Amino acid sequence: MKYITEYRDAKLVNGVLDEIRRITTRPWVLMEICGGQTHAIVRHGIDQLLPRQIELVHGPGCPVCVTPLELIDKALAIAARPNVIFTSYGDMLRVPGSAHDLFSIRAGGGDVRVVYSPLDAVKIAQQNPDKQVVFFAIGFETTAPANAMSVVQAKALGVKNFSILVSHVCVPPAMHAILSSPLNRVQGFLAAGHVCAVMGYWEYPPIADQYRVPIAVTGFEPLDIAQGILTAVQMLEAGRIGVENAYPRAVTLEGNVPAQNVIRQVFMQVDRKWRGIGVIPQSGWALRPELAEFNAETRFDVGEIQTQESPLCIAGQILQGLRKPHDCPAFGNQCTPEHPLGATMVSSEGACAAYYKYGRHTLLENAQ
């Protein structure tokens, strides 16, 4: 396929990897923010092809993984109600709450449906005026425009039985949280290309300047990722601080301005809790007060819910780049995709799911 296969060309990728090996003189720790990049790295073994001095650690850029347990439990409580059609992307159905998941609710008779767009949920609401239709609006900046448009459309159409359960988070505050931690090991970032396609990368230079780190905007194909790593290593080796765009075919400095405008029209910045990490100030979005009628939390008055994480799960440390999935004693035995202890094992962007799917646990067992 044109414009795809060339970015998977092994000869081109190996050429970039050779250049990384040639210029690397010191150990460096890089974090890829995005879970999609994590899966691509593990799937293609890119981390294993790098020089030993380069370590890749995995960041919190998996929206399913960082959705707080309290909100999962609120989703379960809403979805279990008899007059509700609860809609969500498929990833969320197997994410464990305190006691159940959305699949369990559906098996018990709840009307839980997978949709591919929040606008589909608006249509379902129009087709079922006697039901309350809720969409689970999770994600980073990438999914926010479509989720915002669902509210804009529902309001314009006068759809009164539609609401969204919001768990939106933003990348820049998470980078601040990681870099300001006394435990931080990250010396450079591979920024998520799809987030930057929406938001641009104008927010990132102040982060690079404040923490004295290089940031390379990076895509998702093997050549994109190798080029992003090369860009970051070149900056580190030269002592350069700043942001460089290694994904220019999809990303501009200013980003998608109309998408940013619709986000601001519907959402406002708020403090947000991240599963396994805690509250990060001004790291999320919530519905504006004038759109409170579309807020599922208030519509269903689910209130405060007390939760309990599995004591075995170290997903929070993995999401901060402090540990790897194979460092978890439960990985691959007590915790598997069929019986997950945490969201990082079930999400299609979760680091634990990537390590399990592509056999990293098997490689470790064989090595031992």
Q: What does this protein structure show overall?
A:
The protein is α/β, with parallel strands linked by helices. The chain has 2 domains: 1-311, 3-Layer(aba) Sandwich (Rossmann fold); 315-367, no CATH class. The chain is built from 17 helices and 11 strands. The chain has helices spanning 10-23, 35-44, 46-49, 63-66, 69-79, 102-107, 118-127, 144-157, 171-180, 193-199, 204-211, 222-238, 257-266, 296-300, 315-319, 351-357, 360-367, and strands at 28-34, 54-61, 84-88, 111-114, 132-139, 162-169, 188-192, 214-218, 242-245, 267-274, 278-287. The strands form 2 sheets. It has a 6-stranded mixed beta sheet with strand order 4-3-5-6-11-10, sandwiched between helices. Helix 7 (118-127) packs parallel to helix 8 (144-157). The two termini are 41 Å apart.
TL;DR of this structure?
By secondary structure, this protein is of the alpha/beta class. Helices cover 41% and strands 20% of the residues.
Labels describing this entry:
single chain; 368 residues; alpha/beta; Rossmann fold; 2 domains; five-stranded parallel sheet; 17 helices; 41% helix; disordered C terminus
List the helices and strands and how they pair.
Layout: H1 10-23, E1 28-34, H2 35-44, H3 46-49, E2 54-61, H4 63-66, H5 69-79, E3 84-88, H6 102-107, E4 111-114, H7 118-127, E5 132-139, H8 144-157, E6 162-169, H9 171-180, E7 188-192, H10 193-199, H11 204-211, E8 214-218, H12 222-238, E9 242-245, H13 257-266, E10 267-274, E11 278-287, H14 296-300, H15 315-319, H16 351-357, H17 360-367
Parallel strand pairs: 1-2, 1-7, 3-4, 3-5, 5-6, 7-8, 8-9
Antiparallel strand pairs: 6-11, 10-11
